[in-house]
Amino acid sequence: MLAPDDTGPGRLLTCAGGPVFAETTVYRRRREPEAYDWCRLGFIREGTAWLLSTDGSEHVRAGHAIFTGPGVLCGIEPEDVTAMSTVYLQRDYFADLMTWHRPGAVCPWTRESACPDSSVIIRSLHPGAVNIEPWLDELVSLSHQSATTRFYRRQALVSGLLDILIEDHSGPDKHGPWAPVAAHVPGLSRRPVVLREPARQAAYLLESDPARPWSLAELARSVHLSLSQLTRVFAASYELTPITYLGLVRARRFAHLLRTTNLPITTAARQVGWNSRGHAARHFRRYFGTTPSEYRRARLAPTRIAA
Length: 307
Description:
By secondary structure, the protein is of the alpha+beta class. The chain folds into 2 domains: about 170 residues, Regulatory protein AraC (Jelly Rolls); about 100 residues, Arc Repressor Mutant, subunit A (Orthogonal Bundle). Helices cover about 35% and strands about 20% of the residues. It is built from 10 helices and 14 strands. The strands form 4 sheets. A 6-stranded antiparallel sheet has the order 2-9-4-7-11-12. A hairpin with a 2-residue loop joins strand 5 and strand 6. Helix 7 packs across helix 9. The protein is elongated, with a radius of gyration of 22 Å. About 30% of the residues are buried. The N terminus and C terminus are likely disordered. Keywords: DNA-binding, Transcription, Transcription regulation. InterPro entries: AraC-bd, AraC_XylS_family_regulators, Homeodomain-like_sf, HTH-like, HTH_AraC.
């Protein structure tokens, strides 16, 4: 089930909504590199081509899978006729899938993080892998239906593709590993726990007024616990100290202001409780791995997927 030839660079993809969209395209001429704000999984189904990116050019053929992160330029130059199915995944949706791939995994392609240095990742599918072409055709078909139509079937197909690419892979990669790096992420490496009421109340206070200059003693008094009791109960519930949790709340609120307003960075920082731009930058980099200025520039890039 192959689509007509591509319609040229700069096009908006028309989809029925939802975090997954797929299309199959037959390339007969060069497509200049383009960047999207979604992640892309490309599967070469027929022919050979040169993949074009900021890293240079790489030769790809039928049986190759290509990952491109959000904001990364990538194009293709076929060596005659090349058919490729591309699965577009909304960045936060993809991050969720990869974060839960294994406990403690961290995906670098979340909305709140910078793109990895490696532009494009190329993988050879295992010769004995399941035939994924029917899955790709079904995803393409479902992409033109309502976003609520068989959502879980779409998710199952995406999970199946990732299972083939990540779990069953034994061939060489170009430009780095696919699997997320292991790191400690609070709450991912343990069983669900019932939140203790004082811990929940403390978290609510911090989230309700992050700009307030909270001290641990003041927070403990507010929930009628001693300092040591609050620290112990809060860590048991959230795997963070209250002050670290406050920093995370401020960073998320700050990121939201950077994405959704034109406030100067210093003004936005003060609104979440950071009184200097330098202080905000240090804490923001700790949680998001980039500076506030770089984060805002990346999030203001033009959107190419019509959600």
